[in-house]
Amino acid sequence: FLQRCRVLRACCLFFFVKHSPPTETDTILFLGSVRFGSETAQAERQKSVRRKLNAIPLEMNGLNILLIDDSIVRGNTIKKIVEMCRAAGAKKVYVASASPPVKFPNVYGIDMPTKRELVADRRSREEIRQELGADALIYQKLEDLIWAAKEGNKDIEQFDCSCFDGEYLTGSVS
Questions:
Q1: How does 8-24 read in b/e, with b if 16+ C-beta sit within 10 Å?
Q2: CA-to-CA distance for 95 and 116, rounded, in angstroms?
Q3: 93 and 130 in contact (C-beta within 8 Å)?
Q4: Residue 133: strand, helix, or coil
Q5: Fewer CB atoms inside 10 A, N or C side of the chain?
Q6: How far is 139 from 160, CA to CA, in rounded Å?
Q7: Is the pTM of this model over 0.85?
Q8: 94 in helix, strand or coil?
Q9: Is the per-residue pLDDT at 8 higher than 80?
Q10: Looking at residue 115, what DSSP letter applies?
Q11: From start to end of 87-152, where are the E strands?
């Protein structure tokens, strides 16, 4: 948990260095714990977003909102949250992912969608930003993610980055 917080904090700091420092009129929301099981039907997942999260106009009207998530897989959840923020009057909605774009399925036991279901499949960052409806989209760089993980545990020498780079540890996967 602490390592994930460090990665999210680094992602947040990078955003404000690149754009502008936060003010009292900016809000940062960490979404790393908002998860919906992949076995759930898509329509049910989208309803669950509404049940789990509420965008309160009193808290968001006229503000710049930075949404930080640990990863963006299908993009449906974050897209719905962006829509909710806008409906609540947010001036701008930025999205930052503490991971690189998820472009390939994980074949080592994590239940993930097929490649075609991934929002980053065959899309540029700009196309993903438009799909999500965000004013800006920032992804963590893979080398920075690896560095942060090594800082948390220097004994780890190799990482499975296949869902980011398509290089599977067991070789070619089709």
A1: bebbbeebeeebeeeee
A2: 22
A3: no
A4: coil
A5: C
A6: 18
A7: no
A8: strand
A9: no
A10: G
A11: 92-97, 136-139
